[in-house]
Amino acid sequence: MNEWIVQIMTSLNYVGIGLLMFLENLFPPIPSELIMPLAGFTIAQGKMEFFPALFAGVLGTMLGALPWYYVGKLVGEENIKRLADKYGKWISISRKDIEKADQWFHRHGEKAVFFGRLVPGVRTLISLPAGISNMKLVPFLIYSTIGTTIWVWLLTFAGYKLGENYELVDEYLAPVSKIVFIVLVVALVFWLVQKRRQKQRQRKV
Q: Dihedral sign, CA of 100, 103, 108, 112?
């Protein structure tokens, strides 16, 4: 897959970045953890500019997020899960993946779209529960764009700094993403505890 990513980016330049990030959001097995670091390495070689590459990555991601959003909005949760059981193996999406993304959305509300864009394994599919829950398009685009911009910038900058070793981004990101996930869960638990205490205080009053 690495060679395929390199060929597309080399031949299509910024359009290649946008296309690859678009496909990455449609088909999770295509890793942004390799696409944008490679773009960063290419920038370090002087063959691309940083901000056009960043823009292409964000634009491709956002365009790729919209199909999943509208699938969730039009098809509905149960139908999507049934389709995942039947055809999900072809694009590496399972019922469990959908349920995980759905739980994220319901726990964090609209902010889940922002946080979800920063967590591998959730970021691609967070559009589904947003659509299922009929989240308005404008807030969806705003939260998604902010989260996506941060994610794409981090990956591109990491690839720029690592140079020829840009592939290490994918290797190092796996444990880091777990830490981020744990921190977010801890923060969520703390928030829920605080909310419960507030409700108890209100009842006593």
A: positive
Residue 153 near residue 47, CB atoms below 8 Å? no
pLDDT at 39: 86
* Token pair of 10 as six digits: 């080399």
**Contact call for residues 57 and 95 (beta carbons, < 8 A):** no
Question: 192 versus 58: which is more confidently predicted?
Answer: 58
Any idea where the domains of the chain sit in the sequence? 2-204
Task: Please spell the DSSP secondary structure of 43-78, one letter per residue.
Answer: HHTTSS-HHHHHHHHHHHHHHHHHHHHHHHHHH-HH
pLDDT tens for 124-146 read 777 877 887 778 899 899 999 99
Q: Do the beta carbons of residue 20 and residue 60 sit within 8 Å?
A: yes
**Are the C-beta atoms of 85 and 95 separated by less than 8 Å?**
yes
